[in-house]
Every structure is written in C-alpha cells, then in structure tokens.
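Summary of Year 1 activities. Much of the first year was spent building the evaluation harness for sequence design. The harness presents a backbone, in tokenized form, and records the residue chosen at every position. We chose the following record to illustrate the format because it has been used consistently in internal testing since the harness was completed.
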C-alpha cells in the first residue's frame, strides 16, 4: 500500500473540500437554469446525469493526481462537507444572483432578436418589392417578344 504523508493528506483534504464547493457551485448553475427556463422530465434527467458524470470525473482526477487512484475516506468526507457547507451558507444568494444574470441575458437577447427581426423584415419587404418589379418587367418583356414572334411567323406563313 502506498504511504501518504500528513502534509499530502492535508493538501488532499483541502483540495477535496474545494472540489466539493466547486461541485455545489456547478449544481447552483444547473438549478438556476432550471428555474429560468422550463425543463421537461427528460431534460432534467439528462442534466442530472451530466452533473453526476462530471462530478465523478473530477473526483477521479483528484484521486488520480493526489493519491495514485486510491480512494480515501477523508477525501470523500471533505467533498461532501464542502458541498454541504456551500449549500447551507451561500447557495440561495448565488442562485438568486445567477437567476438575475440569466434574466438580464434573456432581456438582452430578446432585444437583439427583435432588432434583427425588424431588420430582416425590412430586407424581406424590399426584396419582395424588387422581385415583383422584376417579374412584372420580365412578363411584360416576354409578352412583347411573343407578339413579335407571332407577327413574324404570320408574315412568313402568310395566314
């Protein structure tokens, strides 16, 4: 079994604690997105699977780097403690702040989409006007050509 020094254990404990706080922050992001946008059951399940896969991957990376892939009980405890510490202390304020930021971004994007919609509507109207004039001119020109060809054939045939 690989021996781990007490200083290495302390660093691993602190990194696990920080990872737990980071995972709680990440969960707050998912939670604020759920509060800001409507999600179906499938989307919620997919987000949960994504969150747990990411948490598992980050935990594995931490254990791989710090303890040569040997899971340590104190590291799991530190991750859970960091997660719960953030959830109890600052999570509500963080979710409110993130919801406000998402609401602000939604307003900005709605204004931008309205402006682009008006711009493209003007372009569409101008394009319709020009195309109608073009079609009218082409039809008028073709009618004249048809008459000319008809009259020419009449003259040649003589009927």
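For this record, the design step produced the sequence shown next.
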């Amino acid at each position: 079994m690989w021996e781990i020094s007490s200083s290495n254990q302390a660093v691993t404990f602190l990194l696990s604690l920080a990872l737990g706080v980071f995972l709680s922050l990440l969960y707050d992001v998912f939670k604020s997105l759920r509060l800001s946008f409507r999600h179906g059951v499938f989307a919620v399940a997919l987000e949960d699977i994504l969150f747990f896969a990411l948490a598992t991957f980050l935990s594995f990376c931490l254990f791989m780097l710090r303890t040569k892939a040997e899971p340590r009980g104190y590291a799991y405890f530190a991750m859970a403690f960091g997660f719960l510490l953030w959830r109890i202390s600052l999570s509500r304020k963080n979710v409110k702040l993130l919801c406000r930021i998402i609401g602000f971004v939604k307003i900005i994007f709605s204004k931008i989409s309205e402006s682009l919609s008006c711009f493209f509507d003007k372009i569409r109207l101008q394009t319709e006007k020009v195309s109608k004039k073009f079609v009218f001119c082409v039809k008028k020109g073709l009618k004249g050509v048809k008459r000319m060809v008809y009259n020419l054939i009449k003259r040649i045939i003589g009927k």
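The CA atoms of residues 11 and 110 lie 46 Å apart. Quantitative recovery figures across the full test set are reported in Table 2.
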